[in-house]
Amino acid sequence: MECDLLVIGSGPGGYRAAVLAALRGLSTIIVEKATWGGCCLNRGCVPKKDWYHTARVLDSARHFEKRGIVGSLRGDLAQAWRHQREVVVAVRDSYQSYLKRLGVTALTGHARFQDQNTVIVEPGGDTISPRAVIIATGSAPHVPEGFAVTPGRVLHSDLLFDEPAPEGARVLIVGGGVVALEFAYILRTFGREVTWLARQDPFARPEFSTPAMKLLRTAMADVGLAPIRAGARTLTTTETGVSVTTTGGEIMTADWALLATGRRPVTEGLDLARVGVRLDARGHIVVDDKMRAAGTTIYAIGDCVAGPMTANRALYEAGVVIDNILAPGSRRRDLTRVPEAVYSAIELARVGLTEEQAEDEGHEPGVGFAAFETSPRALGQDEPEGYVRLIADLDNGAFLGGEVLGAEAGELIHMLTASPSLGALRRIAGTGFNHPSRSEEFQNAVETLAAKWRLQGYVFGAGDGAQDAS
Ligand SMILES: Cc1cc2nc3c(=O)[nH]c(=O)nc-3n(C[C@H](O)[C@H](O)[C@H](O)COP(=O)(O)OP(=O)(O)OC[C@H]3O[C@@H](n4cnc5c(N)ncnc54)[C@H](O)[C@@H]3O)c2cc1C
Ligand SMILES: NC(=O)c1ccc[n+]([C@@H]2O[C@H](COP(=O)([O-])OP(=O)(O)OC[C@H]3O[C@@H](n4cnc5c(N)ncnc54)[C@H](O)[C@@H]3O)[C@@H](O)[C@H]2O)c1
C-alpha cells in the first residue's frame, strides 16, 4: 500500500494528524493496535471529564439548602462508570465515521518499521510505503518497581476505566501528580474515604502560580482532602484489601488502591533503531523543534515525546507536523501556545509563560487580576472562588501568559489561546461580552492590568504604543 502519510497510533495526536492531513489533501493511513481513540478517549480526558461533571453536580449539593433545593444527592460510582462508557462509545463512533468520511484508511494492528520507507502492520502483514510517517504511540501507566497491579485491589488509572471501580469505601491513592489530584476529588465526592499518599507536595506545581496552589489546597481541604506527605514503600494485597508501608514506616490499610504514579512513553516493538529514531534516557523519542525524529520524513508527537503528557499538547503538535510535512521546516513547536487544565476541587487552567519564565526570557512582566467573587454570574452559581490572572509585557503591552481558576476554567482559557499575540489584550478590551458571564472577568482583568501598569495606550488604542499592540 502506498500513501502520502502513515500515522501510527489513534490517540488525540494521531487522530488529529490524520484528520488534518486528509483535510489538506494527503492520502492517509492510520494504524491502531488496541482501542481506537487511545488513552484520552478511552482511559483519560474524555471519561475522566464525564466523571468530573458528575462529581461537580454532587458537590453542588453543598449549596442546596440556601438555594431552596430540598433533598440530598448520593453518588453511584458503578452507574457513573456505565455513563462514561456510553459517552466514550458514542465519541469513538463519531471519530471513526469522520475518518471514513474523510477517506482515511484505518488499519488495526501493530505497526513496526522495516526500513525508512516501509512499515509492516502485524499480524496481517500489510506492507505500507508511506512518503512520511508520524509516530503517535502515546504512553502507558508506570508501575514502580516492587509494586504489582491486581484487578479489583491495586489499580492504575487504565484499569479504573476498563472495569467498574471496586465497591470498597476505603481507597488509598498513591501519587502527587495530576491523576492523584483529580481522582482524589472525584472519588471523595462519590463518597469514598480517601487516604492520599504523595511523595512530593501536589500543591507545588511550578506551572501554576502560588495563589492558584493556595486556592487549590483550600478547595481540597473543604471537601476533606489533605495528602499525607510520604511515599509508598511497599503495597501488598491482603484477603480483605490492601496494606501499604509508607516511607516513614507507617502501615495503612484500605479496601483498594489507585496507583497514580506516572506514565511512560510507549515505543516497544516499533524497531525504531532500524530507521535511526533515538530515545532519551527516559524512553521518549528525541525530536527536533519541527518534531522530526529521523531524516525529513519520520516525525513523532504526543506522549511518546518528552513534554507535558496532555492531549492538548498532542493535538497541537499534530498541527505543527502536518504543516511541516506540507512545507518542510516551516513551523517550530512553541509549547507556550498549548493550554493546560486540571480538574479537581477547583478547576485550573493556564497558557503561555509564567512570570518567572517571562523574566528568564528577558521580558518585564506585570500582572492584572480579576476575581470571580464579585462576578454576578459566579455569585449566582454559588461558585465565586477563583480568578482570571493575566501577565503582560510592560515594555510593549503584549500578552505573555494567563491563568484562570474556578468553574469552567478549562473552557474560559480559550479567551487567551485564540489570539496569544501582541494585540490580545486590546482585543479582549474591545470585545463585546454577554452579561452576566464569567468571561467578562477577562475584560476586568485587562482593565485592572492597564490601570495598574499604565498600559492604557496599548490596551485601549490611544496614546503611546497604540500602533505596536494592534
Ligand atoms: C486519567 C487521565 C486523565 C487525563 N486527562 C487529561 C485531560 O483532562 N486533558 C489533557 O489534555 N490530557 C489528559 N490526559 C492525558 C492524555 O490522555 C494523553 O496526554 C493523550 O492521550 C496522549 O495522546 P497521544 O496521541 O500521544 O497518545 P495515546 O492517547 O496514548 O494514544 C496512542 C495510541 O497508539 C497506539 N499504539 C502504540 N503503539 C502502536 C503500534 N506500534 N502500532 C499501532 N498502534 C500503536 C496505542 O494503542 C494508543 O491507542 C489524561 C490522562 C490520564 C491517564
Ligand atoms: N488534566 C490533565 O491534563 C491530565 C490529567 C491526568 C493526567 N495527565 C497526565 O498524565 C500523566 C500521568 O499523570 P500522573 O499523575 O500519574 O503522573 P505524574 O508523573 O504527574 O505524577 C506521578 C506521581 O507519583 C509519585 N510517586 C511515584 N512513586 C511513588 C511512590 N512509591 N509513593 C508515592 N508517590 C509516588 C511521584 O512522586 C509523582 O508525584 C502526567 O504527565 C499528566 O500530566 C494530565
From TrEMBL:
Presence of the UniProt keyword Nucleotide-binding in the record: yes
GO biological-process terms attached to the record: 2-oxoglutarate metabolic process
Keywords: Disulfide bond, FAD, Flavoprotein, NAD, Nucleotide-binding, Oxidoreductase, Redox-active center
Active site: H435
Domain annotation FAD/NAD(P)-binding: ranges: 4-318
InterPro entries reported in the protein's UniProt record: Class-I_Pyr_Nuc-Dis_Oxidored, FAD/NAD-bd_sf, FAD/NAD-binding_dom, FAD/NAD-linked_Rdtase_dimer_sf, Pyr_nuc-diS_OxRdtase, Pyr_nucl-diS_OxRdtase_dimer, Pyr_OxRdtase_I_AS
Binding site for FAD: K49, T137, G138, S139, D303
SS bond list: C40-C45
Pfam family for this entry, one: Pyr_redox_2
Amino-acid positions noted as binding NAD(+) in the UniProt annotation, renumbered to this chain: G175, G176, G177, V178, V179, A180, L181, E182, G262
GO molecular function term, any single one: dihydrolipoyl dehydrogenase (NADH) activity
Co-factor requirement: FAD
SUPFAM superfamilies: FAD/NAD(P)-binding domain (SSF51905), FAD/NAD-linked reductases, dimerisation (C-terminal) domain (SSF55424)
Cofactor note: Binds 1 FAD per subunit.
Pyridine nucleotide-disulphide oxidoreductase dimerisation domain residues: 338-445
Family as reported in the entry's similarity comment: Belongs to the class-I pyridine nucleotide-disulfide oxidoreductase family.
Name the UniProt record assigns to this protein: Dihydrolipoyl dehydrogenase
Organism of derivation: Acidiferrobacter thiooxydans
